[in-house]
Design brief:
This is BD-FAE-like domain-containing protein. By secondary structure, the chain is of the alpha/beta class. Helix content is 43%, strand content 18%. It has a single domain, classed as Rossmann fold (3-Layer(aba) Sandwich), CATH 3.40.50. The chain has an 8-stranded mixed beta sheet, sandwiched between helices. The termini are far apart.
Length: 290
């Protein structure tokens, strides 16, 4: 075997050192993704369309224990967004014992808002039907959504039509967390005509698309509403409470619309973000124990 000269030996050791660093770094990355945070499965299909997919994150221990699930729906003004936009939520919620599911759905102009809501309901149906496979507690299915996603989870969680159409009931929804999603489409479209392509020009259609229309129904799932305040949330809370429904809220003062979801469960030093996360988790804890 040829004896390496000093310069060649130095190059060999440098190359070996960087290869070792790469292998060690990759090992830590794999450990962190697979064992340190959560076990993830991506692009599971709940329908035939390419948008009808979901990502599922499970805690990495105690696989024989049934766990509550959070089904999260992204925002994007009903025309954009992706299930990958979850920030630190999968790690945060799986560490607390939840299965975390992030859902994609068809978007405008390929789908109406009714079809989007039907997609979310179908994703809930998929979770319901695969509960045993992923150790999900069927008595603890929680919906969460941000912006347009908040509107969609509120719509299927207050208007029984969407779950009834796929053989489920509102009774199987344990709770709903709305992260600054619009609840009064009538007020939204009148304030911003740019949403007319999604919801049309008929005011009756806007009322039909509004979760606030249905919050007076009795025996709805407990609802937690994060918002920046205003007349719509106030009216929503009063109407829900008058019907005997369980409702709670957190009003943001400094967080932007995007930060409401980005910082939920995150490591931000923002005091308000921490308070928001604490309020959401206290709500989930109360409903988890009921």
């Amino acid at each position: 075997m040829e004896k390496l000269s000093l310069p060649k030996r130095r190059k060999f050791y440098v190359a070996f050192f960087f290869l070792l660093l790469l292998l060690v770094g990759s090992s830590f990355y794999f450990f962190d993704r697979t064992y340190g945070q959560e076990a993830a499965q991506f692009n599971l299909t709940y329908g035939d369309d390419s948008k009808q997919t979901l990502d599922l994150y499970s805690p990495d221990s105690n696989f024989n224990q049934k766990r509550p699930v959070i089904i999260y729906v992204h925002g994007g003004s009903w025309i954009a967004g992706n299930k990958s936009n979850v920030a630190e939520k999968p790690s945060f919620f799986t560490k607390d014992g939840y299965v975390f599911v992030s859902v994609n759905y068809r978007l405008y102009p390929k789908a109406t808002y009714q079809q989007m809501a039907a997609d979310v309901a179908s994703a809930v149906k998929w979770i319901h039907d695969h509960a045993n496979q992923y150790q999900i507690d069927l008595d603890n299915i929680n919906l969460m959504g941000h912006s347009a996603g908040g509107h969609l989870v509120m719509l299927i969680g207050t208007n029984p039509t969407y779950l009834d159409n796929i053989g489920l009931s509102l009774k199987m929804v344990h709770s709903i967390v709305n992260l600054d999603g619009p609840i009064d489409i009538n007020r939204l479209v009148q304030g911003n005509r740019g949403y007319q392509p999604v919801f049309g020009r008929d005011k009756n259609a806007w009322i039909e698309a509004s979760p606030i229309t249905y919050v007076g129904n009795k025996n709805l799932p407990p609802i937690f509403h994060v918002s920046r305040g205003g007349k719509s949330p106030e009216a929503f809370m009063k109407k829900a409470a008058a019907a005997g429904n369980i409702v709670d809220s957190f009003e943001t003062k400094t967080l932007t619309h995007r930060e409401v979801t980005k910082l939920l469960g995150g490591s931000s030093s923002s005091i308000e973000a921490q308070n928001m996360t604490r309020a959401v988790m206290e709500f989930l804890k109360r409903t988890r124990e009921r």
